[in-house]
Amino acid sequence: MLSWKRLLYVILIVLGVSTVFMIYNINEERAKNIRIQNSPYEERAFTDTRQIDGQNRPSVRIYGDSGKELYGDIYRNVKHMFERLHFQVIEEDWFAPEQARAEELVVFCDASVGIYTNLQALGEFVARGGRVILAAGLPEGNEDSYLWPLLKIREKSVRENYNQMLFERPLWPVQMEEVAYDGYNMSTWLQVDQDAAVYIHDAGKNVPLLYTTDYQDGKLCLINGTFLSDVRCMGLLTGAAGAVSRDFLYPVLGVKMVFLDDFPMITFVDDKMCMQLYGCSTESFVRDIVWPNFQGISLRTNTPYTSGILTVASKEESFPAINDSLFTAIGKSALQYGGELVYIEKCLEADQICFNTDFITEFAKVFQNYQIHSMALQTEHFTEKMLDIPGARIQMVRGQLGWEGIEFACMEDYTVFPAATGGNGMEDGNLFAISSVLAAYGMVSHVFDVNALIAKNNDTASWDQDKGQLGVFETELLSQVGWLDAKTISQTRDDVRSYLNLDYGWQRDGARIVLDCSGIVKGQAFLYKTDGRIVEAEGLTYEEAGNGYYLLRVEENHAVIVTEGE
Asked: What global pTM score does this model have?
């Protein structure tokens, strides 16, 4: 028989264990009914319509052949970029210098410049103050020898693939000293005079990859290579335009955004694999190691995450099983840090569409007050039928920079904002690509695949390597762009509408720059590259972005910038 003392011990132990289980069950029940609610985003006001003086609109003359292999891509990308910047784009077969206004920019998108103009007349145009960008490199041989004195070329040889870049002068708002380009590029081996202003050269053979020269009253810039066949390299184009201009002012998005795909986790990495790779369960690894790293980056850089889960695919077999506990815990945490949850599409066929009904049902149970408004595309096989997700009203779609028709768009029922770059590695080319896109579009829009952060396959543990790359992303990029607005995808709707629909013109008069805008949402962003400094402004706010760039936020349709005295 038990003594009364022992019986009391047994009763206390039973009560203690029961209390623990009761608290656990209460917390579990609370977790299943998360009361986080997202309010509709209020549209920002547009400024009043204003008539823009056509003489003040920026304009560019572009020469090239859209049918030429490789150079056709450069031509289309250059034209598309200037259209995005709302330049008046003049396309002609032949450049006649006497028809061009002094303030117009002239861009050649073919290595063989001589088939689009008389080279002697081009030299005379530059001498009178013209600004010219050779955006597609140079041909092999001597057919362009007349341009050598203008370009300060001393020696010229064959083409090679130069991808390791050293920055010598400020070209972009944010740039590293040395970066790698991960695409294929044909650059010509050159030696130039010392008075050529080299902005980028090859790290190995010291070949100039982007430089400018002064020729009497004008200026030329050579982008030595075929970089601009890659849409991620458009920062070289806007950087070149700024390098040949005293002032360069152009509209941008002005936002920073980070996407976490496959997060909250519905993962192919099971407990057995995770135990072999890291010595703990998948849930424990994601909750206690992976997610705290992302939380730290979010808090230190004030960057909310747009997190997505695969919901639309071509086959039902594409949807992995849901880890309820992990999904609930991480999903809640992502939202509590100001983030947004979205659906992800990955259809390999546009006419084969399946919805992840198990996840949709489970999500509705757990997040009873949260409405998903956005979907991220992972393939170009897009149809509007993919937006008809049960119980959802999709208003924002994540496209991809370079995807025709689904990079930027304002449709009747939805708006498209693009992801610009993606990948868990930084030093293999992403540092260059993200900085280039930042210079061209004034945005950071990068995608991480969280599944691949844990393991690339059954044998490769990738976290130990990739967590260092997350640190590089934070220190070299995110921490440098505090002047961008941190947003999730649903919050960018007005930014896209304004960016696509605006009209503007500007002119300098002594120390004053007058900027007139129409069709813009208040707060529309511009980047302004100048050799001087802003001392005051009316109708807009300004903030230094770095390397001679300012980020402007326009509040009125007529604004004035005052720079340092002449």
From this structure: 0.92
